[in-house]
Design brief:
By secondary structure, the chain is of the alpha+beta class. Helix content is about 15%, strand content about 25%. It has four helices and eight strands. A hairpin with a 4-residue loop joins strand 1 and strand 2.
Length: about 180
């Protein structure tokens, strides 16, 4: 169990979660003891990604976002992380980063919004680990917003997310 994570959570910061959910972050040592993940919740302002089973927080991770993290992604190259309801729809074990799971951005609304500005909404938004070539500099990425709009975690955390989250899992990304 990660007690510090639980201390940092509060019902004011997590209005969609119940107090019961806050106290229920699982401390299972074996992945087989963890309930099925029903949703991934990302709170950009908090720089947190939560793995949820119903209303219970099963895991919580510190994340890095795009270089321009405030606001919804509008077009390719704006370096923003999108906001909204999406699906984790496929994965890549051989990406340029330590594993990656694709977020179904852009949806129809995203395409329409970008089109109204005459822009391309972009794509290839992922949850991923650190760059494969980070080597001894891996520590420098942690805690900074450095992606082009993706959601990044440490390689160890990406390995755990990879094992716990199935393709087809909904992801909600909120400001």
């Amino acid at each position: 169990m990660r007690p510090l994570h639980l201390l940092l959570l509060s019902t004011a910061l997590l209005p969609t979660l119940t107090p019961h959910a806050l106290a229920s972050e699982m401390a299972a040592s074996a992945l087989g003891e963890i309930p099925a993940i029903s949703q991934v919740l990302v709170r950009k302002e908090e720089r947190r990604l939560y793995l949820m089973a119903g209303e219970d927080v099963i895991r919580s991770y510190r994340i890095s976002l795009g270089d321009n993290p405030v606001g919804h992604k509008l077009y390719e190259g704006d370096e923003r992380t999108p906001e909204g309801q999406y699906t984790l729809d496929w994965r890549n074990a051989n990406s340029d980063f330590y594993k990656s799971i694709h977020i179904s951005y852009p949806n129809d609304r995203d395409r329409e919004l970008a089109s109204s500005w005459g822009l391309d909404p972009g794509g290839s938004i992922m949850i991923h680990g650190l760059p494969n070539n980070a080597g001894d500099l891996a520590f420098a990425f942690l805690g900074l917003d450095w992606t082009d709009g993706c959601i990044a975690v440490s390689n160890e955390e990406m390995e755990e997310i990879w094992q716990l989250v199935a393709d087809g899992t909904p992801i909600q990304i909120v400001p």
